[in-house]
């Protein structure tokens, strides 16, 4: 298999096991060259910490793109996570168009909301910009809250398959090509992923754990991207990423005071084994 090169664009929280500090090691462990473009640098992530520092790197992005173009650098895939502004979304589109290789993929995790609410600092203008980015993507990886915001469908904590299908149809009507719809639960104690790929739809169900961790969405998306770029089908990549994320949560539950992220490092071997 050809050696693939990925660019991931998202913030870097120096402490907190999320965003680039998750994406870089996980995708690299999948055997894929991983290049990074930090959209911002934070001392910690914003959930549970106070007084964190933040440096916006938006204005550095065009110059980085120009240098890459001069050097004729190209990527087989551009994968985006947390983006801090509508301007960054515009720059992502420019960077993808300028640096994608032949048949290069754009994979978007529309990381902007959870539990029925937008993250702090985001508004409807950001949601509209994210809709446009998702419509251009080859794959999107939304959770339930993000999918509802993208489609304008009211968020519900209790739902059936008809409700999920309504959201999927609305995403497809927006122009979303392939959808990896995470956190979809149809029965107690179980959850899963609806995979819509190449006109086909399937559901991968897995164990739902009682505890949750910050950063598991980043872990999941990174593992999915890594597995997909290693040649796995979208369905298989979705399942591998789900199983790995469950292992990360289990590992974290063993340590009572590890509240700020998921211990993904000790179980990286399981991800690597799943890809072989």
How are the SSEs ordered, and which strands pair?
Elements: E1 5-15, H1 20-29, E2 33-44, E3 54-56, H2 61-70, E4 75-80, H3 86-99, E5 100-108, E6 113-114, E7 117-118, H4 124-136, E8 139-140, H5 144-151, H6 161-174, E9 178-181, E10 190-197, E11 200-207, H7 216-229, H8 234-253, H9 268-275
Parallel strand pairs: 1-2, 1-4, 4-5, 5-8, 8-9
Antiparallel strand pairs: 2-3, 6-7, 9-10, 10-11
Quick overview:
With about 280 residues, the protein is α/β, with parallel strands linked by helices. The protein has helices at about 20-30, 60-70, 85-100, 125-135, 145-150, 160-175, 215-230, 235-255, 270-275; strands at about 5-15, 35-45, 55, 75-80, 100-110, 115, 115-120, 140, 180, 190-195, 200-205.
For the sheet with most strands, the description reads: 9 strands, mixed
Considering DSSP H and I runs of 4 or more, what fraction of the residues is helical? 40-55%
Taking pLDDT < 50 over at least 5 consecutive residues as the criterion, the unreliable ranges are none
The SSE string, one letter per element, is EHEEHEHEEEHEHHEEEHHH
Radius of gyration: 18 Å
What sort of overall outline do the alpha carbons produce when their principal axes are compared? globular
Secondary structure tally, helices: 9
Question: Based on the structure, what is the oligomeric state of the protein chains?
Answer: single chain
For the largest sheet, list the strands in their spatial order.
Answer: 3-2-1-4-5-8-9-10-11
**Strand percentage:** 15-25%
Structural class: alpha/beta
């Amino acid at each position: 298999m050809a050696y693939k090169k990925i660019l991931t664009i998202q913030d870097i929280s120096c402490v907190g096991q999320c965003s680039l500090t998750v994406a870089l090691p996980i995708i690299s462990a999948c055997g894929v060259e991983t290049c990074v473009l930090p959209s911002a640098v934070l001392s910690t992530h914003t959930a549970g910490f106070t007084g964190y520092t933040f440096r916006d790197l938006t204005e550095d992005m065009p110059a980085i793109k120009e240098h890459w173009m001069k050097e004729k650098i190209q990527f087989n895939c551009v994968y985006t996570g947390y983006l801090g502004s509508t301007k960054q979304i515009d720059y992502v589109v420019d960077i993808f168009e300028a640096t994608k290789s032949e048949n290069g993929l754009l994979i978007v995790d529309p990381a902007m909301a959870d539990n029925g609410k937008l993250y702090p600092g985001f508004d409807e203008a950001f949601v509209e910009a994210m809709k446009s980015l998702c419509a251009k993507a080859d794959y999107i990886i939304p959770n339930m809250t993000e999918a509802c915001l993208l489609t304008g469908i009211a968020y519900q904590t209790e739902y059936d398959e008809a409700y999920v299908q309504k959201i999927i149809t609305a995403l497809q009507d927006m122009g979303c090509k392939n959808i990896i719809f995470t956190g979809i639960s149809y029965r107690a104690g179980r959850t899963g992923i609806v995979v819509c790929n190449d006109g086909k739809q399937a559901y991968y169900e897995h164990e739902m754990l009682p505890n949750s961790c910050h950063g598991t969405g980043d872990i999941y998306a990174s593992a999915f991207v890594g597995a997909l770029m290693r040649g796995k089908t979208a369905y298989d990549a979705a399942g591998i990423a789900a199983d790995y994320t469950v292992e990360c949560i289990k590992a974290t539950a063993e340590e009572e005071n590890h509240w700020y992220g998921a211990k993904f490092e000790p179980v990286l071997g399981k991800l690597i084994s799943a890809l072989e």
